Amino acid sequence: MADPAALKPNPANPNRHSAHQIQLLAAIIQEQGWRAPITVSKRSGLIVRGHGRLEAALLMGCDKVPVDEQDYANEAEELADLLADNRLSELAELDEADLKKVIEKLRQADPTFDVELTGFMEDEIAKLFAEEEAEDALETIPRMECQAFEHHDYLVFMFHDLRDWMLALQGIGVIEVDYSISRTSKRIGIGRVLNGKRLLQLIEAGGKAA
Fold first, then answer.
1. Domains defined for the chain, CATH in brackets
2. Which of 4-13, 104-113, 164-173 has the lowest mean pLDDT?
């Protein structure tokens, strides 16, 4: 344990924490206690991990905070760990279907629990479940297969899994995607919606035939 006022933030830390994030961190610590210590380098005496937790501790007026002192061979190793701590979490892919299941499970386990202590705001959670309800309300397309000799000005492939979409892009050799086109973009001509799973099946079949 250490006095948070005596800890030294690393001036090289590129991450900036908003006031909202610090307030949220403080609320989580007050509710659940310290789940992770502040990592300090024995080599430099500077914080490597936990700059946000330090700010939260100062906001709460903590007298002591848990500290984990780590050995680093040199400055490069220390800075690499500093950057990786934040960058690796950014690279994680959030599965919205699994997220909904976890939130539902949390609510069932404790209906009075403040869901915002997960880091997700109430409006974000409401939007997440509203999108699911909107998808369920959409009229089902009776056939999602392209008939022989049909002509369409554009095709829309529906994917419910980001990994399937990435596989499809790779399979048909798409190098660059124009993300400016969205559901609200104006479409000219006649279009047809097709099942993305069918496209993957055709790509796989073509690969085997080759």
1. 4-90 (3.90.1530.30), 96-137 (no CATH), 154-209 (no CATH)
2. 164-173
